[in-house]
């Protein structure tokens, strides 16, 4: 029989009457439980937000993007493209020419992000689930089409049904004096709007067009692009594929994964997650301070019992372990209950989404959550460390009673 654990359980569970110390211990247990539950839930929400952003980016961006280290365009000769396409890791390679431009439709105009892509872009099938109206079409019967984002459609009041009103794209000519009154200062292309897509507000100013149209507008040479977008085959190791691609394209170009392109956003989410975790950790620490006070008062209350134990031959180590175990019972009971309740809440939210976002414009109805075992382990370790810190001094004080 573990004598310290038995005595500690008697002190906590087997009291004939509930004293102030008993209620303070229960309050400490509830405080640790609520703080632990909140920590698990909030960390899971941040994990869910990070995963949600990954899914959003996956709808529009490629697995790998090759872009110049300096400047915004580079030469991509057919020899380089063929060599990349022959790699077993690559499923699709899309050449892209992208820049800001001015869009006009009927009497409206707005600045857009024109993205010219070749025919392989639609084979990626990324926008299939994001289409609101019309169809995915860039070129048919020698007619060039444009696929516009919901924000552009709203700014210009575009109707994909109206095939008679073209979307006019203007881009300043290089070497010409810039003037809105000079008709020769801009390259112009007219496109028929074939569809409207919506992903997220950061993509609301995009217009997708054929690569030939974008190159003509920007004044690019036939092999000139701003980036190469690559879709990897399922099961491909991203780090190994990135290193392989980097070795082929050389030091003048940089190969980035989808996460690399959005590293600032992920860093912001992780910093916010860290700050919130620290805040909730302080709440757990404050709740655990009650353990310190309840154990300190329990030591005073059980002073005669401690003297009897010493008289019966108990060592200072045994007495210390009694009160350390008492603190562990209080804290771990609350922590385990908090962990279980936090996991249950996250699982129910993931399955049923009963906590709503509360905003009409949100792309999802309920808060996203994703349980991560490392968060649960970290929370458990935090509670254990706090328990040891708050229980050690009362236990040490009890061990010194003569």
From TrEMBL:
Keywords, ordered alphabetically: Cell membrane, Membrane, Transmembrane, Transmembrane helix
Spans through the membrane: 20-46, 274-299, 329-348, 376-395
Residue ranges the record marks as coiled coil: none
UniProt domain ABC3 transporter permease C-terminal: residue ranges: 280-401
Pfam families: FtsX (PF02687), MacB_PCD (PF12704)
Domain MacB-like periplasmic core per the UniProt entry, residue ranges: 25-247
Subcellular localization, as worded in the UniProt entry: Cell membrane
One of the protein's GO biological processes: lipoprotein localization to outer membrane
Entry's family note: Belongs to the ABC-4 integral membrane protein family. LolC/E subfamily.
Name listed for the protein in its UniProt record: FtsX-like permease family protein
Organism in which the protein naturally occurs: Spirosoma taeanense
């Amino acid at each position: 029989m573990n004598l310290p654990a038995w005595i500690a359980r008697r002190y906590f569970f087997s009291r004939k009457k509930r004293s102030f110390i008993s209620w303070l211990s229960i309050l400490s247990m509830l405080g640790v439980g609520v703080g632990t539950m909140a920590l698990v839930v909030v960390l899971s929400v941040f994990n869910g937000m990070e995963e949600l952003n990954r899914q959003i980016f996956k709808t529009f961006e490629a697995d790998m993007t090759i872009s110049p280290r300096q400047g915004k365009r580079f030469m991509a000769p057919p020899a380089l493209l063929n060599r990349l396409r022959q790699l077993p890791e690559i499923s699709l390679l899309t050449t892209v020419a992208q820049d800001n431009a001015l869009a006009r439709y009927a009497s409206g105009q707005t600045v857009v992000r024109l993205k010219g892509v070749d025919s392989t872009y639609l084979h990626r099938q990324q926008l299939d689930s994001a289409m609101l109206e019309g169809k995915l079409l860039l070129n048919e019967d020698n007619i060039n089409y444009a696929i516009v984002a919901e924000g552009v459609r709203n700014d210009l009041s575009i109707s994909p049904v109206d095939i008679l009103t073209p979307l006019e794209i203007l881009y300043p000519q290089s070497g010409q004096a810039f003037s809105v009154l000079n008709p020769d200062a801009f390259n112009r292309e007219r496109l028929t709007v074939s569809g409207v897509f919506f992903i997220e507000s950061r993509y609301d100013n995009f217009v997708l067009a054929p690569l030939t149209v974008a190159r003509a507008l920007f004044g690019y040479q036939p092999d000139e692009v701003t980036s190469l977008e690559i879709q990897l085959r399922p099961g491909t190791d991203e780090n190994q594929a990135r290193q392989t691609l980097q070795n082929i394209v050389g030091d003048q170009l940089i190969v980035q994964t989808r996460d690399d392109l959005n590293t600032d956003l992920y860093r912001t989410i992780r910093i916010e997650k860290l700050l919130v975790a620290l805040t909730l950790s302080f709440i757990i620490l404050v709740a655990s301070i009650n353990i310190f006070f309840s154990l300190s008062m329990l030591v005073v209350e059980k002073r005669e019992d401690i003297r009897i134990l010493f008289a019966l031959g108990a060592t200072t180590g045994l007495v210390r372990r009694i009160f350390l175990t008492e603190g562990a019972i209080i804290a771990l009971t609350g922590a385990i209950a908090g962990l279980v309740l936090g996991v249950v809440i996250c699982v129910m939210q993931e399955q049923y989404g009963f906590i709503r976002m509360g905003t009409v414009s949100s792309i999802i109805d309920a808060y996203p959550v994703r349980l991560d075992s490392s968060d649960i382990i970290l929370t458990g370790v935090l509670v254990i460390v706090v328990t040891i810190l708050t229980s050690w001094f009362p236990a040490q004080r009890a061990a010194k009673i003569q």
